[in-house]
Design a protein that fits this description.
With about 240 residues, the protein is mainly β. About 10% of the residues lie in helices and about 45% in strands. It is built from three helices and 15 strands. Strand 9 and strand 10 form a beta hairpin. The chain is globular.
Length: about 240
């Protein structure tokens, strides 16, 4: 089992662009391992959600919330399928996210989780102004993160923090502003490899963790992002 696990780990590192996922037996024996989710192949079992907006049907419709597993914009050179989320941030507080349950981990164990997220954004540098910005966040919880209705307002059942500020269950990976003078959609990569963005998630009694990645916006306009790939490295503490 040790020899096989090392072989799988090495293969994941060599072929990081593929969807390389160790089986659950191997996950339980490895102390450090990566899982790569390449949305060019499929949606990889991730699901979506929106929060921080009014729950009334009429109010919600104004936010123009959209989701699709679809092709990249036609003007983008690297045309491939990806996970698209879009919303019109009328209250400067919209949160758009995707999530995925991971099983086969060690029960009641702390894992240091390192994210590398590749996405496409058209949020140009000149869009950042007094109206705010858009921040990419990632985290993990032992229970399902989801949207709940709190007195007429959709909120998260986790502590995600606010805008660039991290919360108990999510850290900031930086903003999604594209480089100056870039036109249209631009490929961006964000991660939490810096010491001040280290994240530790604890599994539940069944060895499960829910991964969550999303944009926390204080920008008063429409934001559309295309998630291309999410690479996650687990390290048992």
């Amino acid at each position: 089992m040790r020899t096989r696990s090392k072989a799988i780990f090495g293969a994941c590192l060599l072929f990081i662009s593929s969807s390389c996922v160790p089986d659950q037996t191997d996950q339980a024996t490895l102390d450090i391992f990566p899982i790569n989710f390449n949305f060019a192949d499929s949606d990889q079992g991730w699901t979506h959600g929106f929060a921080e907006y009014p729950s009334g049907p009429a109010d919600s419709a104004l936010f123009e919330l959209k989701y699709a597993y679809t092709d990249q914009p036609s003007e983008f050179m690297l045309v491939k399928r990806s996970f698209m989320l879009s919303g019109k941030n009328l209250n400067n507080d919209l949160f758009m996210y995707i999530k995925k349950k991971i099983t086969g981990l060690k029960p009641q164990t702390d894992y240091t989780i390192t994210y590398t997220v590749e996405l496409t954004s058209d949020f140009a540098a000149d869009s950042q102004s007094a109206t705010g910005s858009v921040y990419l966040k990632a985290g993990a919880t032992p229970f399902e993160p989801k949207t709940v209705d709190d007195a007429g307002y959709f909120v998260m059942n986790i502590d995600k923090g606010n805008a660039a500020t991290p919360g108990q269950h999510m850290v900031s990976l930086g903003d999604i502003i594209t480089p100056a003078k870039s036109a249209g959609y631009t490929l961006l990569t964000r991660n939490n490899t810096m010491a001040n963005s280290r994240y530790v998630g604890r599994t539940n009694a069944d060895g499960e963790l829910w991964l969550i990645v999303g944009t926390d916006s204080s920008y008063g306009g429409t934001t559309t992002v295309f998630y291309n790939r999410i690479n996650v490295v687990f390290s048992a503490s």
